Amino acid sequence: MRSFLTLGQFIIENQKDFPYAKGELSRLLRDIGIAAKLVNREVNKAGLVDILGSADATNVQGEEQKKLDVYADEQFIQALRSGGECCIVASEEHEDIVCIDSHISSTAKYVVCIDPLDGSSNIDVNVSVGTIFSIYRRISVDGKATLDDVLQQGDRQVAAGYVIYGSSTMLVYTTGKGVNGFTLDPSIGEFCLSHPNMKIPESGQIYSINEGNYIKFPQAVKNYIKYCQEEDSASNRPYTSRYIGSMVADIHRNMLLGGIFLYPSTSSYSKGKLRLMYECNPIAWIIEQAGGKAISGEGRILDIKPETLHQRTPAFLGSKAMVEKLEEFIAATN
Ligand code: AHG
Ligand code: MN
Ligand code: MN
Ligand code: MN
């Protein structure tokens, strides 16, 4: 019996699940895995090399770009360019779509939306950060891919995943047949299957929100937080508050232990802070594939019809029973 299954072996063994792909999606996932290893190498020695701190630039989000934001963005785009399976990239770090123009990619079928480095504010203080990716098939059949190939509803994704650069580095992804987690074994430089068929617990006792924004939260969210904090031993309340500030890290913890992650509209972000195309859609699909729920407060995140590349949405995702309890509070205030 083989002692471990690498990401590459797993992808090949499950290739039959991709009805229309003849290996291209497999190769695309492999390319992402390679870039993740390169980013992991820099994250792991950050502090020893000149990869911390500001890149002295501001991205389209109006955020100060960190050197690792730029490095990660470059690594993923380079891996996608050389892999030849991707025709267009939408990255948090680029205002417009990045066309992967090369003779081999002109026939490429896939579109990748990516948050190259999630949790940038945590890089310089050695707290877990991540990468989030979302893959679609292009809609146009030939010629140059366009923004219309990118702005697809979340339920049209063909693959979605995240990498967490934490106490260990993991790659977690779905292609619509459940969620599987792979842990990087540095001794062989391979992601190995460590968390097959991940399921988020039906309920949990962790709520994750930046309570610094409490004053501006919608009333339903305030009511839900009060519910989380009430004494009720029958339902294991008060719950525990845990907030890391890297979406990937907060989501990954909740995937394993159960919990709910909330990023509502705030005074700074009237539509919520998190971006639909490369944070909320991929994470929402993973959560749903693991048996959880992912809503915007007005419906399912995966049903949102995208209008712009960097549009934001409120996001409430995690254990099904916890999200449904929040929905009760939302319904009661509508
Ligand atoms: P990014 O670093 O890719 O810009 O994303 C940061 C996001 C997300 O990772 C996290 O959940 C959220 O910002 C934290 O926001 P606050 O600091 O406002 O709580
Ligand atoms: Mn950012
Ligand atoms: Mn992010
Ligand atoms: Mn980012």
UniProtKB/TrEMBL annotation:
**InterPro entries listed in its UniProt record:** FBPase_C_dom (IPR044015), FBPase_class-1 (IPR000146), FBPase_N (IPR033391), FBPtase (IPR028343)
The cofactor note from the UniProt entry for this protein is: Binds 2 magnesium ions per subunit.
Q: Which GO terms describe its cellular component?
A: cytosol
Q: What EC number(s) has UniProt assigned to this enzyme?
A: 3.1.3.11
Any one biological process term the GO annotation gives: fructose 6-phosphate metabolic process
- Reaction(s) catalyzed by this protein? beta-D-fructose 1,6-bisphosphate + H2O = beta-D-fructose 6-phosphate + phosphate
Q: Which cofactor does it need?
A: Mg(2+)
Give, as one word, the top-level EC class: hydrolase
Q: Where in the cell is it found?
A: Cytoplasm
| Presence of the UniProt keyword Hydrolase in the record | yes
Residues where Mg(2+) 1 binds: E92, D115, L117
Residues binding substrate, per UniProt: D118, G119, S120, S121, N210, Y243, K273
Keyword Cell division (UniProt): no
What family, per the record? Belongs to the FBPase class 1 family.
Q: How does it assemble?
A: Homotetramer.
Stated name of the protein: Fructose-1,6-bisphosphatase class 1
Organism from which the protein derives? Sphingobacterium hungaricum
